[in-house]
Hints:
Layout: E1 2-6, H1 10-22, E2 27-32, H2 44-49, H3 64-67, E3 70-74, E4 78-82, E5 87-90, E6 95-97, E7 100-103, E8 107-109, E9 122-124, H4 128-138, E10 144-147, H5 151-161, E11 167-171, H6 183-194, E12 198-202, E13 206-209, E14 215-217, E15 222-223, E16 227-230, E17 234-236, H7 239-243, E18 252-254, E19 265-267, E20 272-274, H8 282-296, E21 309-314, E22 317-323, E23 333-339, E24 344-351, E25 354-361, H9 367-376, H10 385-388, H11 395-399, E26 409-411, E27 416-417, H12 418-426, H13 432-439, H14 449-465
Parallel strand pairs: 1-2, 1-7, 2-3, 7-19, 9-16, 10-11, 10-16, 11-12, 18-20
Antiparallel strand pairs: 4-5, 5-6, 8-17, 13-14, 14-15, 21-22, 22-25, 23-24, 24-25, 26-27
Amino acid sequence: MRLVVVGNGMAGSRLVSEVRARSRDVRVTVFGEEAWQPYNRVLLSNVLAGTASPGQIRMQGPSWYADHDVTARLGVRVTRIDREARVVEAEDGTREPYDVCVLATGSEAVVPPIPGLAGERVVAFRTLDDCEAILRAAEGARRAIVIGGGLLGVEAARGLAGRGLPVTVLHLADHLMERQLDAEAGHVLAGTLAGLGVGVRLGVTITAVRADGSAELEGGEVVPGDLVVVACGVRPVAGLARDAGLAVDRGVLVDDRMRTSDPAIYAVGECAQHDGTVYGLVAPAWEQAGVAAAVLTGGEARYTGSRLVTRLKAAEVELAAMGETHLTDEDAEIVRFAHPARGTYRKLVIRDDRLVGAILVGETGAVGTLTQLYDRGTPLPGDRATLLFPGLAGPAAAESPTLMPDSATVCHCNNVSKRAIRACWESGARDVAAVAEGTRATTGCGTCRGAVEGLLSWLNRQDAEAPAG
């Protein structure tokens, strides 16, 4: 079978690796519009902050394609899909025939129609090339402006502030990350950012960006700056599918097998729309890639949707949000704790004794337990405080890997359980790098690294203490 994958980001590269892990008989060609090898887009803010280099967020080694018999056309944009001839056409004149084509074209930055956003001091924040352009511009900048206070905007602002550059976030909504957080959590997050050198202006409308990099607000106020980063969200890249006559709404429409309206073409990741939803996070993209790879290699798999958990973990900024976070006391049982001076906010949303939503800002040690309760819909303990403050259940229950069930999910991005990590350890993996290679744990958002280290420490210690024989 000739498989052509259009897009080599986090979804496309995962699909290719999943297919190759299942079969060596598929002839695989992948086109990547970016010249970079696949990299972890979740960690771009670390590159901005200077805590990681582009090489450190790379997801595959330089020899991976040759080692796995995959033809990679990096830095080559696909311009057309000829469905009748089953051929993919690229901008360099290449015509690549396929039996099955998978679209993994991802998403692109939304640039609002504000005068001046095409200026040389303005950069969108989406790709590694964008990241490098921002860093070049930041070298001579004295103050930066980030347009947009969603997840991308907060990540960009924290990254630039980490380099000592004063930042002002300009956000149209009345609190930060309004899609994931309630107003009180957004207020706590803004306070945390203020302590790190990030100013936040809420409920403001930008009328123009000046050539010097400052921004004009409605009413005439001018916010000084000489670097503008646009982080106003993303939208699916679906033009190629639309031009090919595939069914497209906001994204490319797919069924439970990730097939489009043409059974020879599949779509995965941020360009795909399943059951009315376009997912913009890495975990659903990887789930979809796994389903498509299984189906393409003769297996049985169905994608039934994903339960979203948004994570942000940068230097001194941690948060997690899941489910129905905006319900009020009239709609559900709400349990919350707020300590704005310490940058802490915790909220549980409970209905019918099940966790249907949660927000954690600041200390996020409880996120693993809450995510499992949210995913599985299991009944909650009567003392809700033990969920907000795991230490109340006793240090052993809160910290000891021995009390963590083998079925517990440690890495939510890759759905890696304690059982899988233990099996990897028993096969010889003794450090995080080896476990990551064997299970992919820690290769998503990276927030599970501490838990993996704890499990390995416990397993290694048990091994050392075991009696001879």
